[in-house]
Amino acid sequence: MAEREFKGFGGLLLSADMRGSDEDPSVLLLHGGGQTRHVWQETADALVKAGRHVISLDLRGHGRSARSEDARYEFDACVEDLRAVLAQLASRPVVVGAGLGGWIALTAIGEDGGHLASGLVLADAPPEIDLRTAGALAASIRSAPAQTENVDPVFGDVIDVEKSSERISLAASGLKVPVLFVRGALSSFGNRDAANRFVEKVATAEFAEIEDAGHLAVFDRSDAFSAVLLDFLERRVPRVMPDYKQGSDARTLRDALGCFATGVTVVTTMSAEGEPVGLTANSFTSVSLDPPLLLVCIAKSSSSLAALEASQRFAVNVLHIGQQPVSNTFAMPGEDRFSQTPWQEGQYGSPLISGALANFECIKFDLHDGGDHVILIGKVERAKYEPRRDPLLYFKGKYRRLHFA
């Protein structure tokens, strides 16, 4: 076991225990208010034995994490701490949060999407939160006597869970990663009906209940909780990497290819009738600087392929982060694409998408067969770009944006 320090919100240092091999899939453990990372001892041991890399983090003002000199213990600061920690990790972990730690994790992941974590486990942190539940949790934090010497006594007075209850509930509806909500059957926080409503609303969520356990069943019945947690991880975020072999499931190959992040382009040309034609493509590559060549891959099933094969000129328009609607328009069959998109004719006659991150006007250089695609190589005649914008990215079947740590 090793100790590591992370920089949290405002540069405050946060301390964590690191266990297991960092080559294994990671699990980040977040304790509840008034506790420290040591409450996870038994669960962390079980995870390491099951081949997981475990990070047990102390919240700000708790355990070995620094105390805030200006008492910045509001809920927002705790959420920003987690975002900062996740940005410093080499891979996206499954985040397991108990009580307050669960609500912090839910908010960070629900608001920012799946680029922060690969899964979320809520232990007695009801995703459907009302003021009564929020008030009960806040009261339990203020009255927690067990580890007061390891917790800044100001924390319980400052943390504003009640004020954040609406934000927490709203973030729950935005969850896209695999989610498990676990509660003790005897817990006074939330109820089974609320849990079922959450599972119906969030397609990626599931619910488990531990019998004969109350609030914070994760610690009252750590053996039962660990069994539920490990079952969820092996089913929804497995250790074994998906493996494609020729002739096996094509979806696995597609997912593997999707691990290569790309930009998004719209390839355009003029038809023989003088009408603009175009489609969305993310298979775009620079080939050569001398001569200046690039290539795009066009599906043989595309309605735009015939016009691109017949035309001697075409353009590649690289989209910026604000042009996701343009990408969607040109990816949908049957859309009247150019009537919905600002464009102008380029210097060499090809349609150029207005405001694109970059426009490349090309003359056809070569065509090659590429299985179910045609490889179109162009010689760049003119290029222009916008240096003040960021690219629209595509990764694992979803749009992404640059994330600056």
TrEMBL record:
InterPro entries, A to Z: AB_hydrolase_1, AB_hydrolase_fold, Flavin_Rdtase-like_dom, NADH-dep_flavin_reductase, Split_barrel_FMN-bd
Recorded family membership: Belongs to the non-flavoprotein flavin reductase family.
Source species, domain of life: Bacteria
Keyword Metal-binding found: no
Which Gene3D superfamilies does the record match to this protein?
A: alpha/beta hydrolase (3.40.50.1820), Electron Transport, Fmn-binding Protein, Chain A (2.30.110.10)
Which regions span the lipid bilayer? none
Q: What is this protein called?
A: Alpha/beta fold hydrolase
What would be an example GO MF term here? riboflavin reductase (NADPH) activity
Q: Which organism is it from?
A: Henriciella algicola
- Tell me which UniProt keywords the record has, alphabetically: Hydrolase, Oxidoreductase
Q: Where is the Flavin reductase like domain?
A: 257-401
- Quick check: keyword Hydrolase in the entry? yes
Q: What Pfam families does the entry give? A: Abhydrolase_1, Flavin_Reduct
